[in-house]
Amino acid sequence: MIRSRRIAAMALGGAVALSSAVLAGPAHAAPVADTPVATVPLSSTVPTEVAYTWAGSSGFRYRLPEGSAPAQSADYPGVVPPAHAGPDDLSSGTDVITTVSGATVTQQHRSTGVTATVTVPSGQTYRAAAGWSVLTQDATGAPHVLRAAADGTTTDLPVTGLPSGAQLTGTFVTGGSVRRLAAVYTLDGTTGAGLVDLADGSFRTYLTAVGSSPQIVFNDRWVVNGNKAIRVDSAPGTAPDTITAPYLGEAQAVVGDQLLTANAMFLPGGATPELTAVSLTDDTARTLLAHSKGAYLPTPDGGALATAGPSSVDWHVYRVTPAEDGTATARKVLDVPAWQTVPDGLALAGGELLMYGNTTRVGGVYGFYAVPLDTTGRPTGLQSRRGPALAPTTCLGGDAACPQLEALGDGRVASLWTDAQGGEHVLVVGPDATTLVSVPTADAAGRIGTGTGRYVLYNGGTPGSQKVTDFPRGATAGETALDRPRTAAAVWGQRLWTPGSTQGTVVAYDLKAKKNVATVDTGAPCAPGEIQAVDTWLYWTCGSAGPAGVYDRAAGRAITVPAGQARLADGYLVRENRTTHELLLTDFHTGTATTRTVAVLPAGDQNTGGSTGRWAVDRFGGNVAYLTDRSRVAIVRAGVPASPLAQLEAQTDPQPGGPSTLSPWRPVWQLNKPADWTLTLSSASGTVVRTVTGATAAAAVRASWDGTTDSGATAPRGTYTWTVTANPRDGEGPALTLTGTTTTP
Questions:
Q1: Which residues contact 212 (CB under 8 A, 6 or more apart)?
Q2: What does DSSP say about strands 537-541 and 548-552: parallel, antiparallel, or unpaired?
Q3: DSSP for residue 643
Q4: For residue range 481-524, what is the model confidence (pLDDT) as tens digits?
Q5: Taking the model in full, what pTM does it have?
Q6: Interatomic CA distance for residues 40 and 31, integer angstroms
Q7: Chain segment 519-576, per-residue pLDDT in tens
Q8: Burial of 677 by CB count in 10 Å (0-12 exposed, 13-18 middle, 19+ buried)?
Q9: HSE of 686, CA atoms in CB hemisphere, 13 A
Q10: I want to staple 407 with a disulfide (CB 3.0 to 4.6 A). Which of 287, 347, 554, 731 is the partner?
Q11: Which letter does DSSP use for residue 641 in this model?
C-alpha cells in the first residue's frame, strides 16, 4: 500500500592532473564519519533456491541462482576419508566427482584425492555415471558398464538381463547407490523399469507399467515409482507392494526404509510444506522436516539433501541419512543466505530497525520487517514481519518524501496510504505479523508528524487541518482522538505539545484528560514553526534558517542548536547537510551542543524527505540508522546516555468479561526505552498469586494474564494489585516500579 522508491547509488570518482608548471590547490579532506557497528540487509521473504551440482559422502557442491555466483562447496562435519579408494572398491565411489570431456571421463575421489580415467570406446556414447562406474550405449542401443583398470586401461562390461526386444528409453536414474543404476525401457508398448547391478552388469526388472513419465527413486534396499514399492532383494517375480499411507508431495529419495516426499502442488488449508518420511515396511508416515520445500537430491551414499526452515532468513540445507533401524534422520549442514532486496524506507525505535520494501522479488507485494538490535546497534535476531503483506500505495507524484514512516516505540509502525478514491489513511501495522489498523483522514496530500505508542499526529494537506489519531490496544480500527487547527505540534506519550499564547511558550495537552496540563517557556524568540518532543527535551525552530534550540525541562535550561531539517532523539538531534551529504549528530545532553559527522550519505540518493527515506533516529534511547550506497542499512552509535526509565502512557483497564484463557487481561505500559520486566499480581492480603516476566516489545511492556495463579488454578474473584518492575536494558538509571489495581469478575 506504499509506493516503492528505489534508492539509486552513484559511484563517485575522479583524478587530479599535476605538472611541474601548475600546482594543485589543497584538496578538501573527506569528512571523518563514524564507523558503523553493523549493516543490515532487507531480505527476501522467498527462500533462496539452492541448485545442487554434485553430492557425495564428504560434502556437496551447489549454486545460489539469485546471485549468479560460482559453484560453492560445503563439507559435512566429522568426515573421515576411507583408508582406500579406487575403482576396485565400488563402495568407496560415494565420494567421486565425475567430469566428462568428449570420450574421456575423469573421476576424482573428493576426500582422498584419488583419480581415475575412463575412456569411452569408439562407437559408444556416455549416458550416466555412478561412483566409479560409467554407463554407455553402443550403436545398437545395448548398455555397457565401463570402469578404469589398475593398468590405466578401461574395462568394458556388457549389460545382460534386459528382456528380449526391450528398448531403453534413454532415461537413466542415479542417486541413492553406487552399486546400482535405474534404467527405463519399453517393450510391446508398455514401459518398465529396473536396476543395473554395476558390479556384474546384470539387469533386473522390478516395475512394469510405470507410465510414460516414471518418477523412480531407489537405494540398495528399495525401488519406488508412484505408490508402488518393491525390495531390491525380493525374489524374481515378486509383485510390488502398494503404498497406502497418506502423504503429500512427490517422491524425492529413498533413505533406509523410508520414502521421502515433498513439494506438494496443493496443500490443505492451514498446512505448511514439509518433508514426509513414509515407512515402506509398515506404511506409516511422519514429518521428517517441517517447513521444507524446494531443492532435494538423493545422494550416492543412500542419503539425501533437503532444504528447510521456518523463514527465508532461517533457511538451511539438511543432510538426511539412514539409521541402522531403517529410519531416516536429518542434520543441518549449511545455512543458506537470504536473497537481498532494497529497502524503500526505514525507521528505528526501541532497539528495533524497521524496514519497508518489496521482499517477494516479483510482483508488487510490500511489507514492513523488523530486526532486533542490542544497545550498541548490533542485530540480536532474525528479520521478522510486522503486519500483513501490503500492495504498493499511490503516493503523490513527485513526492520525494515518500514513503513516510513513524516507528511508534511499541513494536508498531505508522505510514500513509492513499485509497483508490484519493482518500488518505493513517495506517498502523504490528506488533505481530498480521495486525493492520487504519483511520481515514478525510484529507489528502498530508504528512505524518510524530507519534508514540497509540497516538499518531497527522498534518493534513488541507490548510489548517491537523489530527491526532488513536490506535489503542486490541482495536480493529483506529479513531480520531483530536481534530484541531494546524500549528506546529508534536506527540510524545499521551501529550500533544503546541505553541502557547505568548512568544516562546509551548503547551502540553493531555490526550486522555483532554485538558492542558503544562506550559513551558522555551526562550524561543518566535512562535515556533516546528516542535518536537522526546522525554524531557523540547526542540523548537523559528524556520529553516533558524534560530533553533532545545529546552531541557528536567534541568530548566535552554540550549542553542544548529538550524536545519532535524530529528530529535533522547539527548541529541540529527540533521542532514544536503550539500555535503553529511549526517550530523548534535549532542546536547550536557547543556552544551557539540556536533560530529556520523555518516556520509550516498550522493545520488533521490529521496529528499530526510528521515524515513534515507536515515532514521531511535527516539527511544537508541542509535542512528542510514541507507548505504550498497542498499543496506548501517547502524552507528549515538554515544549519548539515555534518560532514566519512565512511563509515557498506560492502558490497564480491566478486560470486559475477563480475565480468562479466552479473554485475558492484556495491559500495555509504554516506556521511553527498552527494558526487561516483571509483573506481579497480589491478592488483597498481599499474597502474590501470579508472576509474569518478559522483555518489552520495542519500548512497550505488553503483558497477559489469563486469571490463573502460578499453580494454574483460577484466581478467586476480587481486586488484585498489580506491580510492574522494569529494569532498563541499557543499564542507564534505576529500575522503574509502577502499581495499580485490576479486578476479576
A1: 191
A2: antiparallel
A3: P
A4: 999 999 999 999 999 999 999 999 999 999 999 999 999 999 99
A5: 0.85
A6: 23
A7: 999 999 999 999 999 999 999 999 888 999 999 999 999 999 999 889 999 999 999 9
A8: buried
A9: 0
A10: 347
A11: P
